[in-house]
């Protein structure tokens, strides 16, 4: 591999999977964040609606993402997030994937999510710039 190709490969854009996990059918927020991430220069894959945790994990591993953003508005975060974390660990992908959650998550549940490995929780009304900057500053640099 030439030095130019090696350098270009090393500095690839942050790769993100935005996933709608569970039965939640509200995807407007996921589309908005996906667009903001694309506009920021990130590569973005969107899972579509109603994905099982196992599907999300497999997609994250297959796409070799740096960031996995789970959009959950159904209140099922305490059930779904642990399944995603467990799956990422099974595939050996947890330690090099920045896991973030967006949606309606009560303050009382956020510490539990953080303790299981969620880097940040972004609620409704969070400025897009805040989320983009968080990803820029915290996404693992691979490749």
Question: Nearest-angstrom radius of gyration?
Answer: 15 Å
- Compute the number of structural domains: 1
CATH topology: Rossmann fold
Low-confidence stretches: 1-10
- What gross morphology would you assign? globular
Number of strand elements: 5
Question: Major sheet, described briefly?
Answer: 5 strands, parallel
Order of helices and strands: HEHEHEHEHEH
Organism: Halobellus rarus
Keywords: Cobalamin, Cobalt, Isomerase, Metal-binding
Family: Belongs to the methylamine corrinoid protein family.
InterPro entries: Acid_CoA_mut_C, Cobalamin-bd, Cobalamin-bd_sf
Structure description:
With 143 residues, this protein is of the alpha/beta class. The protein has a single domain (3-138), classed as Cobalamin-binding domain (Rossmann fold), CATH 3.40.50. The protein has helices at residues 3-10, 28-39, 53-62, 77-90, 107-115, 128-138, and strands spanning 15-20, 43-46, 67-72, 98-103, 120-122. A 5-stranded parallel β-sheet has the order 2-1-3-4-5, sandwiched between helices. Helix 5 (107-115) links the parallel strand 4 (98-103) and strand 5. Helix 3 crosses helix 4. The longest helix has 14 residues, at 77-90. It is globular. Pfam families: B12-binding. This is Cobalamin B12-binding domain-containing protein. Belongs to the methylamine corrinoid protein family.
């Amino acid at each position: 591999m030439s030095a130019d190709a090696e350098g270009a490969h090393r500095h690839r854009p942050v790769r993100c999977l935005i996933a709608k996990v569970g039965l939640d059918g509200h995807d407007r927020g996921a589309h908005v964040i996906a667009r903001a991430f694309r506009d920021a220069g990130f590569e973005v894959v969107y899972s579509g609606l109603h994905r099982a945790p196992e599907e999300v994990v497999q997609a994250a591993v297959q796409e070799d993402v740096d960031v996995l953003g789970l959009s959950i508005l159904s209140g099922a975060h305490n059930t779904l997030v642990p399944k995603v974390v467990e799956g990422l660990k099974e595939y050996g992908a947890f330690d090099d994937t920045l896991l973030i959650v967006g949606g309606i998550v009560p303050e009382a549940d956020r510490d539990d999510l953080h303790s299981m490995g969620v880097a940040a929780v972004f609620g409704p009304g969070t400025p897009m710039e805040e989320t983009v900057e968080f990803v820029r500053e915290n996404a693992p640099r691979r490749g």
